[in-house]
């Protein structure tokens, strides 16, 4: 045993032997490192890709994503490799993702990152409406996105009497903006005052509200649309959005019967393609 240890020690003390061993070890390391890098360069990687063409502002579901083994040489730029970073996100407002394309950083955003992200919550067939308010009619900046409001209609009737009543009820507020179009309640140190409350209603109600808004230009009728917080939403389930006063509806329609629709104020646009929710 002692002889074996002595022979090994003598063998390793030979400079030529150490040099040869170092060279051999270096070659082995280089060989395995080269093979590792080569495998990385040529071994296909499993990547998520778009099964269908995805339009801007579209919510991406797992049914819209396929998987393929892609050669690394074809993976260029900031490609998203993990499908979990894509599912339930949205295609950016200025991006159409072609069928068969990989997903790239910047083309996928969260709902909150979309410009005017409140539009994502507009149901298909509804139309957004922007109602002008001030500090008083917004109850001192106390109407928030997510709150429910009723819209009251105030006007002077044919006898000269002022009438006020609830016109449309159970409307959910989507956003509140200041006079510069900035979100009033986003995280900021800047003090902002409510200038418009944005919500969405079905097309028929949207047309009715536009007509009511139009009557505000008539000095004899002097109509107003007034938002009022729906306090019942704090302690009970909110009912369906609906017109709650047929008399006021009839009054508005009679007073605007001869007004062409294209002369009514344009407030909001119907959401069809821009905001899409893919059915599961």
Strand percentage lies at: 15-25%
Number of domains: 3
Q: Count every helix, treating DSSP H or I runs of 4 or more residues as helices.
A: 4
How many β-strand stretches?
10
Overview of the structural elements:
22% of the residues lie in helices and 22% in strands. It is of the alpha+beta class. The chain has 3 domains: 2-42; 45-113, Antifreeze-like/N-acetylneuraminic acid synthase C-terminal domain (Type Iii Antifreeze Protein Isoform Hplc 12, Alpha-Beta Complex); 117-263, no CATH class. It is elongated.
Characteristic key phrases:
280 residues, alpha+beta, Type Iii Antifreeze Protein Isoform Hplc 12, 3 domains, 6-stranded antiparallel sheet, two-stranded antiparallel sheet, 4 helices, elongated, disordered C terminus
């Amino acid at each position: 045993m002692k002889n074996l240890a002595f022979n090994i020690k003598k063998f390793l003390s030979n400079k030529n032997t150490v040099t040869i061993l170092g060279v051999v070890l270096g070659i082995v390391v280089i060989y395995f490192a080269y093979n590792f890098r080569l495998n990385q360069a040529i071994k296909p990687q499993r990547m998520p890709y778009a099964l269908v063409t995805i339009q801007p502002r579209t919510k991406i579901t797992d049914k819209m994503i396929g998987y393929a083994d892609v050669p690394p040489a074809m993976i260029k730029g900031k490609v998203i490799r993990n499908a979990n970073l894509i599912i339930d996100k949205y295609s950016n407002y200025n991006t159409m993702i072609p069928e068969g394309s990989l997903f790239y950083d910047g083309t996928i955003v969260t709902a909150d990152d979309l410009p005017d992200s409140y539009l994502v919550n507009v149901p298909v067939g509804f139309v957004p409406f922007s109602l002008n308010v001030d500090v008083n009619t917004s109850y001192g900046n106390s109407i928030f996105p997510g709150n429910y409001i009723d819209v009251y209609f105030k006007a002077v009737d044919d006898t000269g009497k002022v009438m006020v009543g609830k016109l449309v009820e159970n409307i959910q507020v989507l956003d509140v903006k200041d006079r510069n179009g900035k979100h009033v309640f986003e995280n900021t140190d800047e003090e902002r005052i409510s200038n418009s409350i944005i919500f969405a209603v079905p097309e028929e109600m949207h047309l009715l509200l536009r007509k009511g808004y139009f009557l505000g230009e008539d000095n004899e009728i002097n109509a107003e649309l007034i938002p009022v917080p729906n306090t019942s939403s704090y302690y009970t389930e909110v009912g369906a959005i609906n017109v709650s006063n047929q008399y006021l509806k009839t009054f508005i329609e009679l007073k605007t019967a001869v007004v062409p629709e294209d002369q009514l104020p344009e407030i909001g646009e119907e959401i069809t393609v821009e905001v899409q929710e893919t059915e599961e």
